[in-house]
UniProtKB/TrEMBL annotation, chains A, B, C, D:
<dbReference type="GO" id="GO:0016799">
    <property type="term" value="F:hydrolase activity, hydrolyzing N-glycosyl compounds"/>
</dbReference>
<protein>
    <submittedName>
        <fullName>Nucleoside hydrolase</fullName>
    </submittedName>
</protein>
<feature type="domain" description="Inosine/uridine-preferring nucleoside hydrolase">
    <location>
        <begin position="5"/>
        <end position="304"/>
    </location>
</feature>
<dbReference type="Pfam" id="PF01156">
    <property type="entry name" value="IU_nuc_hydro"/>
</dbReference>
<keyword id="KW-0378">Hydrolase</keyword>
<dbReference type="InterPro" id="IPR052775">
    <property type="entry name" value="IUN_hydrolase"/>
</dbReference>
<dbReference type="InterPro" id="IPR036452">
    <property type="entry name" value="Ribo_hydro-like"/>
</dbReference>
<dbReference type="InterPro" id="IPR001910">
    <property type="entry name" value="Inosine/uridine_hydrolase_dom"/>
</dbReference>
Length: 311, 311, 311, 311
């Protein structure tokens, strides 16, 4: 049975690759993409999304909805310093023909999920503001989603924006808290999993480049700035693929080798731990688990999944 | 020029009277009503809203949209203890013929305001969750609203749910913070203004009763529980009409005798002051005013406005 | 029976006058003064304290202990902008002969109260850090103090440092919370009481000046900057005497015309209401009263009390 | 040069062993012990401390001062569930002859450090309330301490009381924040270091038992409840020795194989991360390091150090 996907994105490099997985993997179709603020300038991310759809050969076939341009409450600066001004490392891709829909992303999420109860799998690759607004407006959608894969947070490990917090949840802690506590069937891909198991090394990046397809050429070009940033900032070789893991485990569940159900929650009142995700690994909170946290992946199968969609 | 109104409500007694003002005052038409959780059971409030529309003679003519059933983050219990289980003091009114729309209230707010930029005046009579979701999803609507009248908060005075906070803002501090900082043209009617200048005394209530119209009979019946609660809890005679003031000053601006522009903001991290509204009367915050706070009203004109719509 | 007083001070103008009341009123003796950071430079405040003791004729007879130079956690800037760099409006008084003790103020408070259980009345005229450290170190002292008069907070009214908070509690909210919840027999003199009932008008200031005693000359000189600041900032004539009220009602209880027992607490987690004092006038907290809040004073008797100690 | 030690303790099992290290290791003398609330009933911990001193052969020679019986602000329940009611697993040891001093622990810390500037090394094995009060009362003592070894917090790893927080810092986050930011020369032994490298396995515990000295018999008896608790709760064999590591690295610095300077701070406003220690391993805070965090120890040398003091 083919997965019906909605991607919620802030399209810079890895968001685009996650979209490629959703669009081009045989197990899934992407039926809508909702854009949330995040990595770079909002309008640029809309263009990046439309261009990625075009590269994948789906131009004009997958509606793109524009959503939240700011966090609920937190102040906001985008992360262009990580991804280059255009989110694709200055690749300067051409403008796609497809234009975004006029319906708001939050309204679209509410409508689509209600019209197709139990059908959609959502890949949440950005701060969770679109999803938070949607589920706050209509609490029933949490129970009408088949699966919600979220890239965000850390599992009792060091963060990236601060030692306490990962970027997606740090940008909008209130939204993350709303979504994680709303009753969605959540699977979490955390930042530390990405750092330890979600990287492609240089040999793998060369293997991708050698495919020499439109998709692989797009990958190589778009990925360049990220490789440099990760090397400089985190001192590691290769590139990190947090969003792609989230998409890949949705379409290829065997990638997950270990996942544990935990109670998770987000710090929204923090002075220094704002956006911190508590993963109750010590079972002291008294709360039942509300998320499945991926703790180990089959890295080779993940890479093969990427190769497949880029071929 | 006739005002085009949207009421955002949690319909118990005074919400209904505010709706009557909007619907029946010659200066205004109500074009939509959005329902937010608040005073009593959500579905009951939808019924209360539909019934109020019917009583006013507009049954089937004003669409009612169902919105947020819970605050963004705060835990929630309704305020049935104030308003009786049905929000009308157990009046047991019949069920209206009109049914709510299928479109979600948040989606409707985004759509209506975008389709009619600069046109709508909104009367916000409930916790601000619907409006917060709408403006978070589409930041542009703040600049496309003609006026936003909000009942909520206190102006450096004691609250009602706690000493620090008034009910509407206490129920969803995050939503209140979002809305007050979104750039809407806000006019605030605070709880302390209601307590000092927004009450009808027993003579006035008898005068209303003596009108003996369908609307006045509805008023008297629906108002009963509130009179008793206010007497018992706040030790004051008569009934309080916070939402009605907000509606009345929208349709009859001369009711406002004094209003001051202040910077206002909401405490969302409080341990004991959660939901507190800061009204920067000492001008120490360094922020420009973002709200017009009503500080004195013409009580007689307010009462005459109510009499007019009940006649 | 003569009151045995300890003053906890941050000696600028009004602190000095409060000390004069304690030292020179026939109902009281001052046995110790503990200095806390606050109004101006710490060492200057120690000098101000010593000089005030000398002016009052008690040089060498009342030990002065140096305590906390910073709040527990909050960052700190002193309030020289209110009081002039020296806290006495640049009066440039000579240096007193008496020097401070070597024992720390917190250690001294613990020792003195334990050695004299049930004996001391404390007049707390500064941020509450000294007292907080003392009672945290030895919880038993709360029950060994006869009375604790505190100048701080607001009673459901606008503050001075921010709209939410009064200076003494704003400087160290954690300390204020510790002290108010420690079980001391607390009487509170709030900022709003000071503003409405604790000012001397210009005629009264002239009457003080006309006394022409060393104390009245000191008063006039030291008070000058405060008069100008209050006029400029709060737009009111005369000078405000928060600390003096606290001292005056200790030595002359008839000054209090109305006081009510309330549960009070301090906001220590606030984003905008940091240092706010909740005064539970609506009795919604479920907590028993822990402070007597002065709500009305006999202004003439207060002035006469000041005249007496300056004569 | 012999280290001059002050231990700040909440004496249950491992606190006692840490005291044994301080007292009996040839590199150190213990000159004072200050008792802070924590593991079990306060008076019991005073007795445990006095008994431990007696067992070590120092009865009557090391003054014991009683300090804080409650956290600054946080509510408090002791941890008897971990350590047995008496903190020694119900060992029912006899009462020591030595009695505590009358001087308060906070006053004693201020006095001792000021009288011996640059001399004392402090081993902080309990919630940091005593030290926080002392340094808040006299900020200068932070610069007059030779070294401050603290057991507390986690280094980007899961906690014990909650997933976010370790017990000592969770009990009094405000105190921990005060001490870590006061300018002391801090070395931190974190909970995760204890769990991974600070345990004695069953063979080691048998080796200790086989020493058959008064100290080893005391160790075995007092340690019993802890072994059982750790097995049940954390699912690990052997016993954990957080406080002993802190004492051991003070007297035997070679035990530290890796330590890194980080900026650390404590969450005091948290809704779910209260007491969390941020260890800025990603260097994103912009703050200079304020603590040396031990990241790897020589486990065999640690064990040999314990064997030595028990022999
Ligand atoms: Ca992303
Ligand atoms: Ca209402
Ligand atoms: Ca003062
Ligand atoms: Ca300990």
């Amino acid at each position: 049975m083919t997965l019906r996907l909605i991607h919620d994105v802030d399209t810079a490099q890895d968001d685009a690759f996650a979209l490629l997985i959703g669009m081009r993997h045989p197990n899934s179709n992407v039926e809508a993409v909702t854009v949330n603020y995040g990595n770079v300038n909002f309008d640029q991310m809309v263009e990046n999304t439309l261009y990625t759809i075009e590269v994948a050969g789906f131009g004009g076939k997958i509606p793109v909805y524009e959503g939240c341009r700011l966090p609920l409450i937190a102040p906001f600066d985008d992360s262009s310093y990580v991804h280059g001004v255009d989110g694709f490392g200055g690749a300067n891709f051409p403008k796609a023909k497809q234009r975004p829909e006029s319906e708001n992303a939050v309204a679209a999420l509410i409508r689509l999920i209600n019209e197709n109860p139990g059908e959609f799998t959502i890949i949440a690759q950005a701060p969770l503001t679109n999803l938070a607004c949607a589920v706050a407006a209509d609490r029933s959608i949490a129970g009408k989603v088949k699966d919600l894969f979220i890239m965000g947070g850390t599992n009792n490990a060091v963060g990236n924006v601060t030692a306490a917090a990962e970027a997606n949840f740090w940008h909008d802690p209130e939204a993350a808290k709303i979504v994680l506590n709303a009753g969605f069937p959540v699977t979490l891909v955390t930042w530390d999993l990405t750092m330890t198991q979600g990287r492609f090394n240089e040999a793998q990046l060369r293997q991708i480049d050698a495919l020499d397809t439109p998709q692989s050429r797009f990958f190589t070009k778009a990925n360049r700035a990220s490789v440099e940033y990760v090397k400089k900032t985190h001192g590691v070789e290769g590139s990190t693929h947090p969003d792609s893991i989230a998409a890949a485990i949705a379409v290829e569940p065997a990638i997950v080798k270990k996942a544990t159900d935990y109670y998770v929650d987000i710090e929204t009142h923090g002075s220094i731990a704002q956006g911190y995700m508590l993963v109750d690994a010590v079972r002291r909170s008294g709360h039942e688990p509300n998320a499945r946290v991926v703790e180990e992946i089959d890295q080779e199968l993940f890479f093969q999944t990427m190769l497949k969609v880029l071929s």
